[in-house]
Amino acid sequence: MPTITVGLRPFPGTPAASSNADDDTPLPVRALLCTMHATSDGGARFVFELDADPARVRIPAPAESAPADELWQHTCFEVFVASPGEEAYREFNLSPSRQWANYAFTAYRERDNAFSAPAAPRIQYTARADGLTLEAELPASSLPGITTGTDLQIGLAAVIELDTGELEYWALKHPAPAPDFHDRGGFVLTLNMAAPEAA
């Protein structure tokens, strides 16, 4: 399957976006990349690579891999998935703690409270001297139902908690005047989904 690697951008006004070229103070977060591709079983894999000073970024403590709410209040990586032409979409919150959330929305910020995540994502977190890597595999059953070969619209984002407690908001595109990962103007990638391989 084709592999796509993209760079996320900080929301304007955050320290990473408003650095002064005359200031020699290193930024806490230097870059954030994400690589994505469809998997042979109809799912999708996302690998976030954060280039940062580990001493200046707060990472949630390890926890049991289980669903949890409000992960976005701390360092958390997010994936938004929608079918073209549909108002509905899914949101995945993926924490370095290995906790996760999977929400369904029928339209912009209209959450489907009857939705229950059908499967857990598989999350691997690796701390590095120059940052961290988080890899998440989303099972096919957790993605919007589509016809084989259909492109999915993807939005990628992250909340990074600095050692000061300040939150930085990173995304592929910031279409709104305030950080808003749900804005469909930020779902700027397409991912072609593979037909599951026969057993």
TrEMBL record:
It comes from the Bacteria. Residues 1-23 are annotated as: Disordered. This is DOMON-like domain-containing protein. It comes from Parazoarcus communis.
